[in-house]
């Protein structure tokens, strides 16, 4: 239609758009096309006829059908658009690369930000822990409170010429509260507090650890006085030269920088370093010397009073039934760490909620203690009656031997319910905290450990695999008695073997043992003799009280668990055995026949007891006075 109109007069202008391949006609007057009136019409054409159409337009101009101009245009928009589309993928890749590098650098705009410290500074928004939240570690709290007081009131100490300690090392077993103490210092110090883990200094790039140490102390010194807390410092503070091979050890470079920052040529600072570890034995000696870690504070498992205090802290805000006695729970948890005690209270609360109860009772506390000691009860494990009877005799053997031994702790509970990896367990609990053991007590422990094996041999005429863990513990204890504690009269008070350095440290690997093969044979012989002595004692107890053992097994088969009260009833006629194998390794050194001296309190107690019995009190107890009390028991170790 457009090409036909080009051959007619009344056309004002002709425009040929070469890039779009479009021919546009501007008419002198509007005309009607397809029910529409317009003064502009256009059409598209194939590329091949573009020149022909241009010639036709020129002919129309010459013929006078076109009164205006005949023009052609080439649009530049396509070039820019093509350029944009070609550069767009490259731009997207560049943006993604920059975003990736920004995330790798911790979100900062600085390039290669690896050497910056990852320490977190305590802010006011973080929840605060105070010394009131710490229980069972009174000595450690007292030492750390002095650090806090020095930072807040330095004039009192400076008047006496006292210098603030540069470092405090908290060490102890896992779960004893080292990190909790550090959080308490952070909550009460009132000065900038930086927290970082020892593993944060370790990276895949050489030199990053030392750089982060420098940056950490630069930040702390800029805000001095300040406290820096390094958790698990053994990750970077291990003994230098402990690694295997002759290659470069990045950890040593980090440690060297840490040593310089703590007490180097530049003595300016006002920064206190608090560190925590459960392996102080592998730390470098240069790190432990005065001037770096001036104070080394042990954080041990709590004693009875400490356990009571810890339980009260974790019991706050939790509902208990009126009959619950937390002091009794503390007596049932000797050797538990603070984390264990917190877990006991939490497990009891979870068990209470699981059973749709509204208050924590003694039953759930007892179950929680068992879960922490031996693991959860495995109700799905179905044992045959014969296997259950074997387990009952095994646990009954442990319990009966422990009940009859003079130095064994009282039996608290015996159960044949499977827990964790065990098919049953016997729980003995000491009446008081003990920190040393006599040879007689350790031999009784051996006999108690072998009581289950002896019961299997006595009743079923063959042992089972259930005594495997008992034998392992008994063998380890007997070997320690001979090689570490000098409790063998044949081998004497000599320590045999190395100090127990770990093989992964690299030290002492390839070193020969420090005793001959002949001595090794004697050690094995003495260990075997101790095991046999304890095994025979357990056997004799079970033979003498076989009827008591059978009664205990019947009650275990019926109830599955028997308590201390049940044990006292079943074993009413069981008498305590005399001590086994008294120590005779004195040689020419004859022990004194005089008993230990009595303290004033012991003498008053003895006097009161004598008066109560209607006897004349025996005075003395002072060896220098030449008098000895009657009826006193030897307590020397």
TrEMBL record:
Residues 164-303 form the AAA+ ATPase domain. One of its GO terms (molecular function) is ATP hydrolysis activity. One of its GO terms (cellular component) is plasma membrane. SMART domains: AAA. ATP binds at residues 172-179. Zn(2+) binds at residues 394, 398, 470. Residues 582-637 are annotated as: Disordered. Binds 1 zinc ion per subunit. The keyword DNA repair does not apply. Keywords: ATP-binding, Cell cycle, Cell division, Cell membrane, Hydrolase, Membrane, Metal-binding, Metalloprotease, Nucleotide-binding, Protease, Transmembrane, Transmembrane helix, Zinc. Its EC number is 3.4.24.-. The active site is at residue 395. Acts as a processive, ATP-dependent zinc metallopeptidase for both cytoplasmic and membrane proteins. Plays a role in the quality control of integral membrane proteins. Homohexamer. In the C-terminal section; belongs to the peptidase M41 family. This is ATP-dependent zinc metalloprotease FtsH. It comes from Actinoplanes digitatis. The lineage of its organism: Bacteria, Bacillati, Actinomycetota, Actinomycetes, Micromonosporales. The gene is ftsH.
